[in-house]
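Below is just one:
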Amino acid sequence: MSTALGLGIDAGGTQTRWALAAPPGTIVAEGAVRGMSALQLHEGVVGETLSELASAALAHGRPARVYAGFTGLGRDVEPLRTLIGEPLDLAPDAVTVTSDIDIAYRDIFSPGEGYVVYAGTGSVVAFIDASGALHRAGGRGVALDDGGGGYWIAREALRYIWRADDEEPDGAWRESPLAIALFEQIGGAGWSHTHRYVYGGDRGDMGRLALAVAKVAGEDPVAREILAAAGRELARLALVMTRRHGPRPVALTGRAAQLHPLIFESMRATIPPATQLELRVSSGHHAAARLALRAAQRSQPA
């Protein structure tokens, strides 16, 4: 009997991570491709990215099952199951599709144990209760909220810079380390450059711009305040879940959460001192790969 393999996928706005798990749960291969969102399902990029991912994974072995977590997931998962399965030569019923926060939670806590606040390109808090039901708050998308995520941080920084330009339009931005760092990454200081970057790019482009905000936090008070405000936004998510389901430990995770210590420090200062709070690195693609492996093992004949 051939060894079963499970493929886990963690699709986010800035990157998509994948991993292959073999018995007894060992990660035997992993990698990353470009970011994608379930919101881009009909734009072609999702299919292209999944084909790239499949080629990379198949170089290490053919998975029997897939467990995939996607940001921006709606109710209709069937097209995604097909897009994931086709390049792997798997039927859709061999593919499980869920949210990215679901797999992040399962990597950090057991059901009923705690709350996971996830700050990537967007932001959300999740709790999987003892019965396995997923409860969440936030995660409404960057157009509405997602406070404290990478997109939000970048948007707040750009809002400040261009409002300041309205007040002093004669190049005052040259005195701002924040503006200099952002314009360097955008590719120019003119409004046309910002307009093209924001409205012609994608969520991942904006999420990556938050790196420039963190880079200058040591010398720019505006950047520091934006990062501290991000921490308060993420604390709000934890407090919402605590009011709904009672006090439990809280884990902060996601790439945006690790941008700068100010984010965690501000969150820590905002939530009650008695609340256990940890900054955790989530390997959701590992958790997803092991879930896929278990499903593959269950489906093998005795």
About this structure: The first helix runs from residue 45 to 58. Strands lie at 6-11, 15-22, 26-34, 65-70, 95-99, 115-119, 123-128, 134-138, 250-253, 277-279. The two ends are 10 Å apart (CA to CA). The mean pLDDT is 92.
